[in-house]
Amino acid sequence: MMMVWKKPSYGFLLMSIFWFSVSFLQADAQENKTYQSLQHALFSSGQLTGNPGPSNIRWIDNGNQYSYLEKNLQHFAPEIRIHDLTTQEDSLLFHPAEHIFPHTSMPFYFEDYQWSKDETSILFKTNTISQPNTSWKYNISGIADYFHFDISSKEITYVVNRAFNARLSPDGKKVGYHKNGEMFIYDIETGIEKQLTNSSVEDLYNGRFGWVYEDAFKLTQAWEWSNDSRHIAYWQSDERDVNQLSLPNYEGLYTEYNTFPYSKPGTNNPTVNIGILDVKTGENQWVDLEDENGLIPRIYWTANPSELAVVWMNREQTEMKLYFYDVISQKKRLVLEEKSDDGWIDILSFFSDANNYLFFPSDRNEFFRMSDRNGFNHIYRYDYDGKLVNQVTEGDWEVTQILSINTETETIYYESTEASPLERHLYSISFDGTNKVQYSNSPGKHSFNMSPDGKYYFDRWSNTETPHKIDLKTTLNGGKLIETIDNGEAVESYIEEYAYQPRELFNFTTEQGVDLEGYLIRPHNFDPDKNYPLVLMIYGGPGHQGVFNEFETSTWVQYLAQQGYVIANINNRGSSGYGRGFKKSVHKKLGLLEAEDYAATAKHLSKRSWIDENRIAIRGHSYGGFMAALSAVLHPNVYKLSLVGAPVTDWRLYKSIYTERHMGLPDENEENYDNISIMKHAHELKAKMLVAHSSLDQDVHIQNTMQMITAFTEAGKDVDLRIFPKGSHAVTYNSQSHLLLYQIYTDYLETHLK
């Protein structure tokens, strides 16, 4: 029986958004209601995204139940609820109004939670501080306070404050965490804190990363519990020889600077070592890899309780070595080695939830590796001697994520592009490569949240004609529907009554013989006899993919369509989903091929009689800002206007690990570093250009924009510049600044492209 999720808070929020929007809508000539203003459009985003479904899902009871957070509107705080998949019953587990912070009268609240492995207790995270300031070195993960909750006694116990990444041990008896440069454990039974390391100094941390590692490798926790709770393996990060970067804060009487280590291409990287702590004795030992000047992007505990797998890579990330280290014998052995002559080696996907390409089941002496070594990303199975047992998946398509590995049934559940590079679907396959089953059948882009055993999963999906739907299903009966969380009816009703322009997929072959796929969105009240301006909305970074068979949810895009713009995007070379050759063709020459593909797309689309070839704009942010600026100077006769947000303008100015992965070392690739610098081509600019950046951007520093503006000035080119001093990499820092930035972008289009 299909059921519709009817949680009061979701319905209340959707109804509130609905009535807010209705009150500001006006009818056009065809009686389709349109946005009254840009503010109305931006604040109406929930109309197109629909119900987000349950948040912070944690699978428990061997996957037969899941917990989730729901905001209690009476107390304005999240509560934890349990949903039982066998009975379909939903119950309250933790209500914050019933608890106070220990030794205070303050009502308890939390931001995140984690279960103990035996599901008898919960570790709460609260009071998170994630923004940089002058009192401590910047990192992404932030610091927080942690509290332990015993489900049986209902008792909340204080654990630690201002700590990084606290985690319960697998046996549930201890909490590990980093604080003030060192590793600690807290014994839940005795309430005693024990410091495990004692060697940190300024810019040297035990169990914590700096900016470059966290951002480039998507790592926030710099340590791992062993499966038997006896050891902690951790990174020691030494940034003392890394050059310092300073970001200005202009808010006070005198400018303050947040200064932190930041490695740029060719300069000193952090030196990292892997230590292993015996939490009982306090003994520490180091894993000596004998490979200097390299990177250690991942560690994993294997099925053997005392054996740690360590991944080493060279700076350019074209070589990878997998070592196994035995804590008892203190010996290491090389298990797997890979080298690439025509591109970088992936150990994660930067733009998806696939944070790992290596998997070590806790109960088998074998591991799985995702690799594109044969042209497409597939799953390979190895024994603990590094011998290839078999290739699990194969074909001219990509495995994009492993979702679950069930060792009892010897089944892997994975997401792939087999149906189309523009779609994602769920499959299962046996360890030996047989018995492949497809579970998701509706055309479109699907994303999955799956129980650890692969028995149940949430499927959130859409296509160009279908708003996002959320289904809860089981793999036990070939993908049988258990419950509909959101059937998309609210969004469908909205777009029946109010103006909405869907994506239209297209493909073509460039003059260079490259097959490209994209989408376009026509203006509202489209008239083929009229002539419309075109805006290319791009990002384009390596491994990213901007075009899918999915529902368009950007209300800014819808607003622009209502103002008479054609919007388009393309999966340029460098995009994921099309195989190794397509993705890694941009290696060591970022931007050049992508710019060719954007220019070819503009030329192809302008062949349509209703697109004006003399009114084409390109807009992008971050890597997209780089591409919007580079395209304007490399193909100056194509674009009338360029909107540039937080751009990298010379890759020698960006972080080392990301840049060297895609560009190699500057001394060995100097010509291409020069060729893709905006500054080198500044004299070619013909388009009107607006650049927006924040002086506090901790990722792409404003130094990039300032050097570019200097080059344009010296070339006699007038460029419009807007600085948001308090913003982040997103440029903006609150709802008002967000609205203002997009008003500036929109007005610029209206003034110079219309």
Features of the shown structure:
754 residues; alpha+beta; eight-stranded mixed beta sheet; 13 helices; 44 strands; disordered N terminus
Summary of the model, kept short:
With 754 residues, the protein is an alpha+beta fold. Helix content is 16%, strand content 36%. The strands form ten sheets. The protein has an eight-stranded mixed sheet with strand order 37-38-40-39-41-42-43-44, sandwiched between helices. Strands 7-8-9-10-11-12-13 form a seven-stranded antiparallel sheet, with no helix packed on it.
Describe the structure.
This protein is α+β, with helices and mostly antiparallel strands and 754 residues long. It contains 13 helices and 44 strands. Strands 37-38-40-39-41-42-43-44 form an eight-stranded mixed β-sheet, with helices on both faces. The chain has a seven-stranded antiparallel β-sheet with strand order 7-8-9-10-11-12-13, with no helix packed on it. Strands 14, 15, 16, 19 and 20 form a five-stranded antiparallel β-sheet that branches. The longest helix is centred in the last third of the chain and has 18 residues, at 735-752. The two termini are 53 Å apart. Mean pLDDT is 93; it is low at 1-29 and 132-136.
